[in-house]
Amino acid sequence: MTPRAIALFGLLAAACTAPGRRSSERPLNPVYDWRNQGEARVVQVRPFYWKKTGPEGERVNILGPLVRYREDAVYRRLEIFPNVFFSARHSPEAERSWWFIFFPVLFLGTDDLLVFPLGGVTHGLLGIDELLLVTPFYARTRRYSGPEENRVTYTVRHLFWPLIAWGSDKRPGGRRTFRIAPLYGRTVGRDGGRSGFFLWPFYTWRRKGEEHAFFLFPFFGRNVTPTREETTVLFPIYHHAKDHLTGGTDTAVWPFWRRASGSDGLEVRRYWPFYEYRRAGFTTTEYAVWPI
After folding, report:
1. Average of per-residue pLDDT values in the chain
2. Tell me, what's the pLDDT at 198?
3. Is residue 116, in this structure, part of any structural domain at all?
4. Contact 45, 27 (CB under 8 A)
5. Structure pTM?
6. Which of 275, 279, 278 is nearest to 287 (CA)?
7. Last residue of a domain, which of 103, 126, 146?
8. Total structural domains in the chain?
9. DSSP class of residue 128?
10. Is 234 helix (H, G, I), strand (E, B) or coil?
């Protein structure tokens, strides 16, 4: 390598590794940069490290999004994708709390200890306000609703989940459930809707206000809502649906014949395997003598 080439190479290396200048518009080089963004300061070592510090707190990404750290006036959070999650609330003093997850084995917190699949107690995990688990024999879930001074507790107990379950909110006409899978099950929801099964999945049903549905698998099924009707015969052979809002219909004898129309110019005509025409929006597709 000639002295001139060595000098040019040194200049290029210096340009890629020298500290950047303060700028709110662009970095000095593609590897290292630091700048001010308003009252915050940003430091980057691409693509490994990014840090932003300001009045709102601190944020750090390492090989983002694999490792992320956040800190502000209320919380500290650490995520190491896909297994480690940590969060600590340090303000106000009366609400200090923390939790740590090493998914899917360990769940720890201020009032939580769950070692999967052995068991434990957690609060707020998977949207469940309280979970007590003794695997595989017993589990108890509790969900709270309403103001704290008049809180409603919906408790469900499970034996050999998901085989046996029963529970209620202990209110007249309130939520309740009972299940001995796959023989029989029945649930009443918070909104008064009812659903159930008998010899699942052969017979299932659901009712809620003007909506009702049932399915005697695979022979016949019906689903009716204020905006839509669906009928299935010998699933998946015959299916018919009608949309009351758009007037669209969809009728099919799978896979040989289908006629459909609806919003956005939807139109389908199928005579499989001889011909199919499909138009949806600005897209049109046709074939003849499939797959030739």
Report:
1. 89
2. 97
3. no
4. no
5. 0.68
6. 275
7. 103
8. 2
9. -
10. coil
Name the residue range of residue 80's domain.
21-103
Which amino acid is residue 281, in one-letter code? G
Which amino acid appears at position 274 of this protein? Answer: F
Our separate counts of H helices and E strands in the chain read: 1, 28
Tokens coding 256:
């040989």
Which among 103, 129, 164 is the end of a domain? 103
Q: 144 Cβ partners below 8 Å, 6+ apart?
A: 129, 151, 152, 153, 154
Is 8 within the bounds of a domain?
A: no
159-195: per-residue pLDDT in tens? 998 899 999 999 988 999 999 999 999 999 988 899 9
CA distances from 150 to 65, 146, 147, 173, 190 (A): 42, 6, 5, 17, 16
Position 24 scores a pLDDT of 47
Asked if residue 40 is part of any domain, the answer here is: yes
Confidence of residue 135 (pLDDT cuts 50, 70, 90): confident
The count of other CB atoms within 10 Å of the CB of residue 109 is 19
Asked if residue 177 is part of any domain, the answer here is: no
Residue pair 178/166 in contact (Cβ under 8 Å)? The answer is yes
Q: Is the pLDDT of residue 226 over 80?
A: yes
